[in-house]
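DNA-binding transcriptional regulator, LysR family structure dump, as promised
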Amino acid sequence: MTTNQQMFLYAVEEMNFTRAAEKAFVTQQCLSDHIRRLEKSYDVKLFDRTPHLKLTQAGEILYASLVEIQKIENNLERAISKNSADVSGTISVGIHVERAHLLFPALYREYHRKYPNVRVTLISEQTPQLLQDLESGKLDMMLGLDIPPQTGYRKDMILEEPVYLFATEKLLQQYLPDRVPGQPWIDADSLSRLPLTCTSFTCAVTRHMGAFLTEKNVRANYVCEIGDYLTQLLLCQNHETAFFCPESFLIEHNFITSQQGDPNERVQPLIIRGLSSKIRVDIISGENRYLPGYAADFRDMLIRQYRDRIGELRAHRDALI
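structure tokens r here:
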């Protein structure tokens, strides 16, 4: 089932685009775009939006058909899973090293129990290199960030992540002495006064922040380029630099450990005022590349685990507000 069709099912189940978007971990605009693409592909109108949201006749037919397809897929998955221990094969997955640290250990434990004879190979590179590996057939799938629209790929959206500035209060007071201590946000103008690190200038987060800072006419003071977030975290803990990092890093064990001790010494994630755009996270595979059932199952497990971990994180943070 395609992402467009999945988003349509969310919309029908909720009969409210806002609630459906929240359920799918996407923006309302993103969900509406998926519905419009589906309508365009079938050349029909699927929803009447006035006086209230309801399905058209074409929408009802499509919904009934997709429900049947979903049942078939679920029955097939259950039938296959009974014999999954006998399945053998290999999967090659491209993923940035930080997200591999965050997600793969628990994911592999679950997956290996179901498919003990499937070998999983992880290749950790930046997104541009992973796209080349995917195109050449070296990868079956990859986790991609902010991949621009292009033909030849299937994109299954996982969610969208905000980007934070990570810094200690001690560093902030050193370079921004007029700042109110403990303030949970920072202005874009203040970023030019801080020493910053970044993973690389081809990294999705660095490119994302570069576009934002250019729009705000702010020049970032990058003093060091480092290939991983953990090393940046160590510099940050030593009050040497600050760095930009996506929301998923908040579940990293080393970051959680950095929250202990003196409040001035802790690494804190700061909201960047004026930054409304987010990093889009997708699972990407070749549009015409066949994925065996065990590979598709790995993709679905990865999507579910990613959403569940971030969902738990957001629920915990909301409870603290």
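The chain has three domains: 3-79, 85-158+280-320, 163-272.
lmk if u need the other ones
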